[in-house]
Amino acid sequence: MKCFVSFLFLLISLLSYSSTELNTLHYKFRIYLSDKGNTHYSVNNPSQFLTEKAIERKRVQNVEIDETDFPISNDYFALVEMAGGEIVSHSKWFNTFVVEVADSTMIDDIKSLSFVDSVKYVWKGTNNGYRESLRPRLQQLNQIEANSQPELNYEDTIYGYTHPQFKLHNADQMLNAGYRGKGIEIGVIDAGFTNFDVIPAFESVDLLGYSSFVPEGDMFASSDHGTKVLSTMAVSQPGQMIGSAPEASYWLLRSEDVVSEFPVEEDYWVRAVEFADSLGLDVINTSLGYNDFDDINLSYTHDDLTGGVSMMSLAADMAYDKGMIIVVSAGNEGNKPWQKSTPPGDAKNVIAVGAVGTDNIIAPFSSHGEMADGRIKPDLVSVGKGTITIGQFGVIGRTNGTSLSSPFLAGLIASLWSINPDLHREELIDIIFKSSDRNLSPDPVYGKGITDFSKAMNEVLKTVE
Is 144-461 a CATH 3.40.50.200 domain? Predict the structure, then answer.
Protein backbone atom coordinates (compact mmCIF):
# COMPACT_ATOMS: atom_id res chain seq x y z
CA MET A 1 0.00 0.00 0.00
CA LYS A 2 2.83 2.37 0.89
CA CYS A 3 4.43 1.70 -2.48
CA PHE A 4 1.12 2.38 -4.28
CA VAL A 5 0.62 5.66 -2.37
CA SER A 6 4.16 6.75 -3.26
CA PHE A 7 3.55 5.91 -6.91
CA LEU A 8 0.21 7.78 -6.86
CA PHE A 9 1.88 10.83 -5.32
CA LEU A 10 4.60 10.73 -7.98
CA LEU A 11 2.01 10.40 -10.76
CA ILE A 12 -0.01 13.35 -9.44
CA SER A 13 3.17 15.43 -9.21
CA LEU A 14 4.13 14.61 -12.79
CA LEU A 15 0.65 15.43 -14.06
CA SER A 16 0.64 18.71 -12.16
CA TYR A 17 4.05 19.57 -13.54
CA SER A 18 2.97 18.74 -17.08
CA SER A 19 -0.18 20.80 -16.72
CA THR A 20 1.79 23.75 -15.44
CA GLU A 21 4.30 23.46 -18.25
CA LEU A 22 1.61 23.19 -20.89
CA ASN A 23 -0.16 26.31 -19.65
CA THR A 24 2.94 28.51 -19.53
CA LEU A 25 2.48 31.59 -21.67
CA HIS A 26 4.84 31.94 -24.59
CA TYR A 27 5.35 34.98 -26.81
CA LYS A 28 6.40 35.59 -30.39
CA PHE A 29 8.01 38.81 -31.55
CA ARG A 30 8.80 40.11 -35.01
CA ILE A 31 12.39 41.31 -35.07
CA TYR A 32 13.24 44.02 -37.62
CA LEU A 33 16.88 43.82 -38.68
CA SER A 34 18.99 46.75 -39.86
CA ASP A 35 20.47 44.70 -42.70
CA LYS A 36 21.06 41.14 -43.91
CA GLY A 37 24.59 40.84 -42.51
CA ASN A 38 27.53 39.42 -44.45
CA THR A 39 25.79 37.20 -46.98
CA HIS A 40 28.44 36.95 -49.74
CA TYR A 41 25.72 36.62 -52.39
CA SER A 42 25.76 38.38 -55.75
CA VAL A 43 23.08 39.34 -58.25
CA ASN A 44 25.47 37.99 -60.87
CA ASN A 45 25.11 34.48 -59.45
CA PRO A 46 21.41 34.11 -58.61
CA SER A 47 21.46 30.31 -58.80
CA GLN A 48 22.85 30.40 -55.25
CA PHE A 49 19.48 31.49 -53.87
CA LEU A 50 16.88 31.05 -56.65
CA THR A 51 15.88 28.07 -58.78
CA GLU A 52 16.48 28.14 -62.52
CA LYS A 53 12.70 28.31 -62.96
CA ALA A 54 12.57 31.45 -60.80
CA ILE A 55 15.44 33.05 -62.70
CA GLU A 56 13.78 32.32 -66.03
CA ARG A 57 10.39 33.63 -64.87
CA LYS A 58 11.99 36.88 -63.75
CA ARG A 59 13.68 37.19 -67.13
CA VAL A 60 10.40 36.68 -69.02
CA GLN A 61 8.58 39.10 -66.71
CA ASN A 62 11.35 41.75 -66.87
CA VAL A 63 12.06 41.56 -63.16
CA GLU A 64 15.47 42.56 -61.88
CA ILE A 65 17.12 40.35 -59.28
CA ASP A 66 18.28 42.51 -56.37
CA GLU A 67 19.43 42.37 -52.77
CA THR A 68 15.92 41.69 -51.46
CA ASP A 69 16.35 38.24 -53.00
CA PHE A 70 19.43 37.53 -50.84
CA PRO A 71 18.96 35.30 -47.78
CA ILE A 72 19.73 36.70 -44.33
CA SER A 73 23.18 35.88 -42.96
CA ASN A 74 23.45 32.63 -41.01
CA ASP A 75 25.43 34.58 -38.40
CA TYR A 76 22.33 36.59 -37.52
CA PHE A 77 20.30 33.42 -37.02
CA ALA A 78 22.95 32.08 -34.65
CA LEU A 79 23.33 35.31 -32.67
CA VAL A 80 19.57 35.73 -32.14
CA GLU A 81 19.22 32.16 -30.92
CA MET A 82 22.23 32.59 -28.62
CA ALA A 83 20.42 35.60 -27.14
CA GLY A 84 17.53 33.33 -26.13
CA GLY A 85 15.05 33.40 -29.00
CA GLU A 86 13.85 30.40 -31.00
CA ILE A 87 13.46 31.54 -34.61
CA VAL A 88 10.18 30.19 -36.00
CA SER A 89 9.95 32.28 -39.18
CA HIS A 90 11.86 34.88 -41.16
CA SER A 91 11.62 37.11 -44.21
CA LYS A 92 14.42 37.99 -46.61
CA TRP A 93 12.27 40.62 -48.32
CA PHE A 94 11.66 42.60 -45.13
CA ASN A 95 14.75 41.51 -43.12
CA THR A 96 12.77 40.12 -40.22
CA PHE A 97 12.84 37.20 -37.82
CA VAL A 98 9.99 35.86 -35.71
CA VAL A 99 11.28 34.55 -32.40
CA GLU A 100 9.45 32.63 -29.71
CA VAL A 101 10.37 33.18 -26.07
CA ALA A 102 9.01 31.65 -22.88
CA ASP A 103 9.16 34.98 -21.04
CA SER A 104 8.43 38.34 -22.67
CA THR A 105 11.34 39.95 -20.79
CA MET A 106 13.73 37.69 -22.70
CA ILE A 107 13.19 39.89 -25.75
CA ASP A 108 15.31 42.61 -24.12
CA ASP A 109 18.51 40.66 -24.75
CA ILE A 110 17.60 40.32 -28.41
CA LYS A 111 16.70 44.01 -28.73
CA SER A 112 20.19 44.89 -27.50
CA LEU A 113 21.86 43.18 -30.47
CA SER A 114 23.58 45.75 -32.70
CA PHE A 115 21.81 44.64 -35.90
CA VAL A 116 18.28 44.76 -34.41
CA ASP A 117 16.30 47.90 -35.23
CA SER A 118 13.03 47.21 -33.41
CA VAL A 119 10.67 44.48 -32.25
CA LYS A 120 6.91 43.98 -32.41
CA TYR A 121 4.81 41.57 -30.36
CA VAL A 122 2.84 39.35 -32.76
CA TRP A 123 1.56 36.37 -30.71
CA LYS A 124 1.01 35.03 -27.25
CA GLY A 125 -0.44 31.76 -26.07
CA THR A 126 0.20 28.54 -24.22
CA ASN A 127 2.67 26.08 -25.65
CA ASN A 128 0.22 23.19 -25.82
CA GLY A 129 -0.47 24.24 -29.41
CA TYR A 130 -2.73 21.85 -31.25
CA ARG A 131 -3.75 19.98 -28.11
CA GLU A 132 -6.13 22.86 -27.48
CA SER A 133 -9.63 22.72 -28.92
CA LEU A 134 -9.80 24.38 -32.32
CA ARG A 135 -11.89 27.53 -32.40
CA PRO A 136 -14.59 27.65 -35.08
CA ARG A 137 -12.96 30.05 -37.52
CA LEU A 138 -14.31 29.25 -40.96
CA GLN A 139 -15.54 32.80 -41.39
CA GLN A 140 -12.08 34.28 -40.80
CA LEU A 141 -10.87 31.82 -43.43
CA ASN A 142 -13.33 33.46 -45.85
CA GLN A 143 -15.38 30.27 -46.07
CA ILE A 144 -18.96 29.71 -44.97
CA GLU A 145 -20.38 26.22 -44.98
CA ALA A 146 -23.39 25.84 -47.22
CA ASN A 147 -24.22 22.40 -45.76
CA SER A 148 -25.71 21.15 -48.97
CA GLN A 149 -24.89 18.88 -51.86
CA PRO A 150 -25.51 19.76 -55.49
CA GLU A 151 -28.66 18.60 -57.18
CA LEU A 152 -28.31 15.32 -59.04
CA ASN A 153 -29.36 16.78 -62.39
CA TYR A 154 -26.74 18.78 -64.24
CA GLU A 155 -26.39 20.33 -67.64
CA ASP A 156 -23.16 19.04 -69.14
CA THR A 157 -21.57 15.61 -69.54
CA ILE A 158 -18.03 17.06 -69.36
CA TYR A 159 -18.22 19.72 -66.66
CA GLY A 160 -20.95 18.09 -64.62
CA TYR A 161 -22.00 20.04 -61.57
CA THR A 162 -19.47 22.80 -62.36
CA HIS A 163 -20.93 23.66 -65.77
CA PRO A 164 -22.93 26.69 -64.51
CA GLN A 165 -19.73 28.12 -63.00
CA PHE A 166 -17.89 27.94 -66.32
CA LYS A 167 -20.97 29.22 -68.14
CA LEU A 168 -21.06 32.35 -65.97
CA HIS A 169 -17.57 33.25 -67.24
CA ASN A 170 -18.12 31.92 -70.77
CA ALA A 171 -15.02 29.84 -69.95
CA ASP A 172 -15.96 26.39 -71.19
CA GLN A 173 -14.86 27.42 -74.71
CA MET A 174 -11.37 28.11 -73.39
CA LEU A 175 -11.03 24.73 -71.70
CA ASN A 176 -12.65 22.93 -74.65
CA ALA A 177 -9.96 24.47 -76.86
CA GLY A 178 -7.37 22.72 -74.70
CA TYR A 179 -6.26 25.66 -72.54
CA ARG A 180 -6.44 24.10 -69.07
CA GLY A 181 -3.43 25.59 -67.30
CA LYS A 182 -0.74 23.26 -68.63
CA GLY A 183 2.72 24.71 -68.03
CA ILE A 184 1.52 27.16 -65.36
CA GLU A 185 2.64 26.58 -61.77
CA ILE A 186 0.24 27.63 -59.01
CA GLY A 187 0.96 28.07 -55.32
CA VAL A 188 -2.00 27.59 -52.98
CA ILE A 189 -1.32 29.27 -49.63
CA ASP A 190 -3.91 28.13 -47.12
CA ALA A 191 -4.73 26.69 -43.69
CA GLY A 192 -4.26 23.01 -44.46
CA PHE A 193 -5.27 20.30 -46.88
CA THR A 194 -6.90 17.61 -44.78
CA ASN A 195 -6.98 14.23 -46.52
CA PHE A 196 -5.71 15.60 -49.83
CA ASP A 197 -3.19 12.78 -49.78
CA VAL A 198 -5.84 10.03 -49.60
CA ILE A 199 -8.84 11.39 -51.54
CA PRO A 200 -9.12 9.63 -54.94
CA ALA A 201 -10.38 12.77 -56.71
CA PHE A 202 -6.96 14.39 -56.21
CA GLU A 203 -4.96 11.54 -57.73
CA SER A 204 -4.88 13.33 -61.10
CA VAL A 205 -3.41 16.55 -59.64
CA ASP A 206 0.11 17.39 -60.84
CA LEU A 207 1.57 18.02 -57.39
CA LEU A 208 5.03 19.60 -57.44
CA GLY A 209 5.42 19.61 -53.66
CA TYR A 210 4.15 20.95 -50.37
CA SER A 211 5.50 22.75 -47.32
CA SER A 212 4.15 24.11 -44.04
CA PHE A 213 5.40 27.38 -42.54
CA VAL A 214 3.42 27.05 -39.30
CA PRO A 215 5.50 25.55 -36.47
CA GLU A 216 2.65 23.34 -35.23
CA GLY A 217 0.01 21.17 -36.87
CA ASP A 218 -0.20 18.68 -39.69
CA MET A 219 -0.31 19.77 -43.33
CA PHE A 220 -2.90 17.11 -44.17
CA ALA A 221 -4.91 17.07 -40.93
CA SER A 222 -5.24 20.58 -39.49
CA SER A 223 -7.93 22.00 -41.82
CA ASP A 224 -9.80 21.03 -44.98
CA HIS A 225 -10.19 24.66 -46.00
CA GLY A 226 -7.33 24.30 -48.47
CA THR A 227 -8.74 20.97 -49.63
CA LYS A 228 -11.91 22.71 -50.80
CA VAL A 229 -9.98 25.65 -52.24
CA LEU A 230 -7.70 23.39 -54.25
CA SER A 231 -10.60 21.30 -55.53
CA THR A 232 -12.12 24.27 -57.36
CA MET A 233 -8.97 24.51 -59.50
CA ALA A 234 -7.32 21.14 -59.72
CA VAL A 235 -9.92 18.35 -59.79
CA SER A 236 -10.62 16.56 -63.06
CA GLN A 237 -13.66 14.30 -62.78
CA PRO A 238 -15.35 14.44 -66.20
CA GLY A 239 -19.10 14.28 -65.95
CA GLN A 240 -19.07 15.37 -62.31
CA MET A 241 -16.61 18.16 -61.52
CA ILE A 242 -13.90 19.97 -63.46
CA GLY A 243 -11.57 22.48 -61.85
CA SER A 244 -10.71 25.74 -63.54
CA ALA A 245 -7.07 24.73 -64.19
CA PRO A 246 -7.00 20.92 -64.10
CA GLU A 247 -3.72 20.64 -66.06
CA ALA A 248 -1.75 23.23 -64.09
CA SER A 249 0.94 22.14 -61.61
CA TYR A 250 0.55 22.85 -57.90
CA TRP A 251 2.52 23.61 -54.76
CA LEU A 252 0.56 23.38 -51.48
CA LEU A 253 1.76 25.87 -48.86
CA ARG A 254 0.39 26.16 -45.32
CA SER A 255 0.55 29.49 -43.45
CA GLU A 256 -2.63 29.70 -41.34
CA ASP A 257 -2.65 28.68 -37.66
CA VAL A 258 -6.27 27.69 -37.03
CA VAL A 259 -5.82 27.66 -33.24
CA SER A 260 -5.58 31.43 -32.80
CA GLU A 261 -5.67 34.70 -34.72
CA PHE A 262 -2.54 36.84 -34.43
CA PRO A 263 -0.34 38.90 -36.80
CA VAL A 264 2.32 36.16 -36.73
CA GLU A 265 0.22 34.39 -39.36
CA GLU A 266 1.12 37.21 -41.73
CA ASP A 267 4.78 36.35 -41.12
CA TYR A 268 4.09 32.71 -41.98
CA TRP A 269 2.29 33.85 -45.15
CA VAL A 270 5.19 36.10 -46.16
CA ARG A 271 7.57 33.17 -45.69
CA ALA A 272 5.32 31.04 -47.92
CA VAL A 273 5.10 33.61 -50.71
CA GLU A 274 8.87 34.17 -50.63
CA PHE A 275 9.31 30.42 -50.97
CA ALA A 276 6.90 30.44 -53.92
CA ASP A 277 8.93 33.18 -55.55
CA SER A 278 12.19 31.30 -55.08
CA LEU A 279 10.61 28.29 -56.83
CA GLY A 280 9.50 30.40 -59.78
CA LEU A 281 5.75 29.85 -59.37
CA ASP A 282 3.51 31.86 -61.69
CA VAL A 283 0.22 32.31 -59.83
CA ILE A 284 -0.59 32.46 -56.12
CA ASN A 285 -4.05 31.94 -54.70
CA THR A 286 -4.66 32.75 -51.06
CA SER A 287 -8.08 32.53 -49.47
CA LEU A 288 -6.98 34.08 -46.19
CA GLY A 289 -7.63 37.54 -44.82
CA TYR A 290 -6.96 39.33 -41.53
CA ASN A 291 -8.45 42.33 -39.80
CA ASP A 292 -9.58 41.24 -36.31
CA PHE A 293 -7.03 39.63 -34.00
CA ASP A 294 -7.38 37.89 -30.62
CA ASP A 295 -5.55 40.84 -29.08
CA ILE A 296 -7.73 43.74 -30.22
CA ASN A 297 -4.82 46.15 -29.79
CA LEU A 298 -3.24 44.49 -32.83
CA SER A 299 -6.36 44.62 -35.04
CA TYR A 300 -6.57 46.73 -38.18
CA THR A 301 -8.90 49.68 -38.78
CA HIS A 302 -10.40 50.99 -42.01
CA ASP A 303 -7.69 53.67 -42.03
CA ASP A 304 -5.13 50.89 -42.43
CA LEU A 305 -6.60 49.76 -45.76
CA THR A 306 -3.99 51.46 -47.95
CA GLY A 307 -2.00 48.44 -49.05
CA GLY A 308 0.94 49.84 -47.10
CA VAL A 309 0.21 48.84 -43.49
CA SER A 310 -0.37 45.09 -43.32
CA MET A 311 2.86 43.12 -43.77
CA MET A 312 0.89 40.60 -45.80
CA SER A 313 -0.41 43.29 -48.16
CA LEU A 314 3.07 44.73 -48.62
CA ALA A 315 4.37 41.25 -49.40
CA ALA A 316 1.54 40.57 -51.84
CA ASP A 317 2.47 43.67 -53.85
CA MET A 318 6.13 42.72 -53.66
CA ALA A 319 5.26 39.24 -54.96
CA TYR A 320 3.64 40.90 -57.96
CA ASP A 321 6.76 43.00 -58.46
CA LYS A 322 8.78 39.77 -58.39
CA GLY A 323 6.80 38.42 -61.35
CA MET A 324 3.79 36.55 -59.98
CA ILE A 325 0.04 37.12 -60.30
CA ILE A 326 -1.57 37.19 -56.85
CA VAL A 327 -5.27 36.32 -56.52
CA VAL A 328 -6.89 36.74 -53.10
CA SER A 329 -10.31 36.38 -51.52
CA ALA A 330 -11.89 39.77 -50.83
CA GLY A 331 -13.42 38.57 -47.55
CA ASN A 332 -16.81 37.65 -46.09
CA GLU A 333 -17.44 40.91 -44.26
CA GLY A 334 -20.18 42.34 -46.50
CA ASN A 335 -23.02 41.76 -44.05
CA LYS A 336 -20.92 42.47 -40.95
CA PRO A 337 -19.88 45.79 -39.38
CA TRP A 338 -16.44 45.70 -41.09
CA GLN A 339 -17.99 45.30 -44.59
CA LYS A 340 -14.81 46.01 -46.55
CA SER A 341 -12.10 43.77 -47.97
CA THR A 342 -9.56 42.41 -45.50
CA PRO A 343 -5.78 42.50 -45.92
CA PRO A 344 -4.16 41.39 -48.19
CA GLY A 345 -7.17 42.29 -50.34
CA ASP A 346 -6.27 45.97 -49.95
CA ALA A 347 -2.94 45.50 -51.73
CA LYS A 348 -2.61 47.56 -54.89
CA ASN A 349 -1.57 44.84 -57.34
CA VAL A 350 -3.50 41.81 -56.14
CA ILE A 351 -6.73 40.69 -57.77
CA ALA A 352 -9.20 40.70 -54.87
CA VAL A 353 -12.22 38.54 -55.70
CA GLY A 354 -15.75 38.97 -54.41
CA ALA A 355 -18.52 36.36 -54.57
CA VAL A 356 -21.63 35.95 -56.70
CA GLY A 357 -23.92 33.04 -57.39
CA THR A 358 -24.22 31.46 -60.83
CA ASP A 359 -27.18 33.82 -61.26
CA ASN A 360 -24.74 36.78 -61.27
CA ILE A 361 -26.25 38.19 -58.05
CA ILE A 362 -23.78 39.35 -55.42
CA ALA A 363 -23.59 37.23 -52.27
CA PRO A 364 -24.63 39.24 -49.19
CA PHE A 365 -21.46 38.21 -47.33
CA SER A 366 -19.11 39.41 -50.09
CA SER A 367 -16.86 42.24 -48.87
CA HIS A 368 -17.21 45.54 -50.68
CA GLY A 369 -16.37 49.23 -50.51
CA GLU A 370 -13.61 51.74 -51.00
CA MET A 371 -10.20 51.40 -49.41
CA ALA A 372 -8.77 54.20 -47.27
CA ASP A 373 -7.10 55.73 -50.33
CA GLY A 374 -10.25 55.60 -52.47
CA ARG A 375 -9.53 52.46 -54.51
CA ILE A 376 -12.43 50.07 -55.09
CA LYS A 377 -12.30 46.49 -53.85
CA PRO A 378 -13.12 43.83 -54.91
CA ASP A 379 -11.44 43.99 -58.30
CA LEU A 380 -13.53 41.19 -59.83
CA VAL A 381 -16.17 38.67 -58.78
CA SER A 382 -16.61 34.96 -59.41
CA VAL A 383 -18.75 32.09 -58.13
CA GLY A 384 -18.54 31.99 -54.33
CA LYS A 385 -22.14 31.17 -53.50
CA GLY A 386 -22.85 27.47 -53.72
CA THR A 387 -19.45 26.77 -55.29
CA ILE A 388 -18.82 23.12 -56.13
CA THR A 389 -16.09 21.73 -53.85
CA ILE A 390 -14.61 18.53 -52.44
CA GLY A 391 -13.88 18.51 -48.71
CA GLN A 392 -12.10 16.22 -46.30
CA PHE A 393 -14.45 13.26 -46.86
CA GLY A 394 -13.93 13.27 -50.62
CA VAL A 395 -17.57 14.11 -51.33
CA ILE A 396 -18.71 16.68 -53.89
CA GLY A 397 -20.76 19.42 -52.24
CA ARG A 398 -21.39 23.15 -52.19
CA THR A 399 -19.56 25.75 -50.12
CA ASN A 400 -20.10 29.49 -49.77
CA GLY A 401 -17.41 32.12 -49.43
CA THR A 402 -14.97 34.34 -51.27
CA SER A 403 -12.53 31.58 -50.33
CA LEU A 404 -13.98 29.66 -53.27
CA SER A 405 -14.56 32.47 -55.76
CA SER A 406 -10.88 33.41 -55.53
CA PRO A 407 -9.36 30.04 -56.51
CA PHE A 408 -11.92 29.34 -59.20
CA LEU A 409 -11.00 32.64 -60.84
CA ALA A 410 -7.28 32.06 -60.19
CA GLY A 411 -7.53 28.78 -62.08
CA LEU A 412 -9.26 30.45 -65.03
CA ILE A 413 -6.49 33.06 -65.08
CA ALA A 414 -3.89 30.28 -65.10
CA SER A 415 -5.69 28.54 -67.97
CA LEU A 416 -5.80 31.82 -69.88
CA TRP A 417 -2.07 32.40 -69.26
CA SER A 418 -1.30 28.89 -70.56
CA ILE A 419 -2.25 30.12 -74.05
CA ASN A 420 0.87 32.30 -74.00
CA PRO A 421 3.02 31.73 -70.89
CA ASP A 422 5.50 34.36 -72.11
CA LEU A 423 2.87 37.10 -71.93
CA HIS A 424 3.76 39.81 -69.41
CA ARG A 425 1.57 39.61 -66.32
CA GLU A 426 0.58 43.27 -66.64
CA GLU A 427 -0.70 42.70 -70.17
CA LEU A 428 -2.57 39.56 -69.12
CA ILE A 429 -4.29 41.35 -66.24
CA ASP A 430 -5.18 44.24 -68.54
CA ILE A 431 -6.87 41.79 -70.93
CA ILE A 432 -8.74 40.18 -68.02
CA PHE A 433 -10.02 43.54 -66.77
CA LYS A 434 -10.99 44.78 -70.24
CA SER A 435 -12.90 41.53 -70.82
CA SER A 436 -15.03 42.09 -67.71
CA ASP A 437 -18.60 43.33 -67.88
CA ARG A 438 -18.19 46.38 -65.62
CA ASN A 439 -14.72 47.44 -66.71
CA LEU A 440 -15.90 50.84 -67.97
CA SER A 441 -18.02 51.54 -64.88
CA PRO A 442 -16.66 49.61 -61.88
CA ASP A 443 -18.57 49.85 -58.61
CA PRO A 444 -17.73 49.12 -54.95
CA VAL A 445 -19.79 45.90 -54.90
CA TYR A 446 -18.85 44.06 -58.10
CA GLY A 447 -15.63 45.89 -58.92
CA LYS A 448 -14.98 45.39 -62.62
CA GLY A 449 -17.45 42.52 -62.51
CA ILE A 450 -17.40 39.15 -64.25
CA THR A 451 -14.70 38.31 -66.79
CA ASP A 452 -15.73 36.83 -70.14
CA PHE A 453 -12.95 34.31 -70.74
CA SER A 454 -13.97 33.59 -74.31
CA LYS A 455 -13.35 37.24 -75.10
CA ALA A 456 -10.13 37.20 -73.07
CA MET A 457 -8.96 34.03 -74.83
CA ASN A 458 -9.35 35.66 -78.23
CA GLU A 459 -7.32 38.65 -77.09
CA VAL A 460 -4.50 36.47 -75.72
CA LEU A 461 -4.45 34.42 -78.94
CA LYS A 462 -3.61 37.64 -80.79
CA THR A 463 -0.38 37.87 -78.79
CA VAL A 464 0.84 34.43 -79.90
CA GLU A 465 3.41 34.64 -82.69
Answer: yes
